[in-house]
Specification:
Layout: H1 2-25, E1 41-45, E2 59-64, E3 67-76, E4 81-86, E5 105-110, E6 117-124, E7 127-133, E8 139-144
Antiparallel strand pairs: 1-8, 2-7, 3-6, 3-8, 4-5, 4-7
Length: 145
């Protein structure tokens, strides 16, 4: 009887040790990420090139084709207004169907807007065009996919 108890305890200890080994010692695969193609793209704007971002003077095409404007983070205000369009050009005569600018505006952010992150998740089908209205581009981080 004592020998059976000894073997049972040894077997229970072995099962417990194997459980701990597979739970903590076995290397895990990748457990978190984004499916390829769903990651965000980002860029930054700044009033001067010394800040490490591109200096927006008029317009910049961020993406051609379909996607979504995820969010814009204002990290430094200024006087200009940022306009985001569902377009690839600011020239109306070069757009397919001569679509009016007012119908393709995704959002407009005043450069004097409070420093914050503004979430849009706005879909665009033609492209994502960023246009500066006025002078003094705010310092921003723009994310899209």
């Amino acid at each position: 009887m004592r020998q059976l108890l000894t073997y049972s305890l040894a077997g229970l200890f072995l099962v417990g040790a194997l459980f701990v080994y597979f739970l903590y010692v076995t290397p895990k695969g990748v457990t978190g990420s984004v499916i390829q193609g769903n990651e965000y793209n980002a860029t930054s704007t700044a009033p001067t090139a010394s800040e490490g971002a591109f200096v927006l003077t008029t317009t910049k095409l961020l993406k051609t084709g379909q996607g979504s404007l995820a969010q814009v983070c204002i990290t430094g205000d200024n006087t200009g207004t940022l306009n985001f369009y569902n377009a690839t050009t600011s020239d109306v005569s070069k757009r397919t169907g001569n679509v009016a600018t007012t119908t393709i505006l995704l959002t407009s952010i005043a450069g004097s807007a409070p420093e914050d992150c503004y979430v849009f998740d706005a879909v665009f089908t033609t492209g994502l065009l960023l246009d500066l209205e006025g002078t003094g581009v705010p310092t921003t981080t723009i994310m899209w996919r």
